[in-house]
Design a protein that fits this description.
The protein is mainly α. It is built from three helices and no strands. It has a domain of 37 residues. The longest helix is centred in the middle third of the chain and has 20 residues. The relative contact order is 0.07.
């Protein structure tokens, strides 16, 4: 029955949601403040890597070719 609904809906027949804070708490045992701090650090590092040209945007399949 679940597979039939998967095909008919072209997706899961139920919602799959969990807050970021809830996920990080259950998966890694960190508080919301700790996960916020880590997220901010990751965003800063991503921005820095993008400015340095280490990251590039992929908009089509051809962008994946070396």
């Amino acid at each position: 029955m679940a597979l039939t609904q998967l095909v008919n809906r072209r997706g899961l027949p139920f919602a799959v949601t969990e807050s970021d804070a809830g996920y990080f708490a259950s998966e890694y045992g960190v508080t919301a403040a700790q996960s916020d701090k880590a997220g901010a650090a990751m965003r800063r590092e991503t921005d820095r890597a993008r400015r340095m040209g280490k990251l590039r945007e992929i908009t089509e399949l051809a962008d994946l070719a070396p």
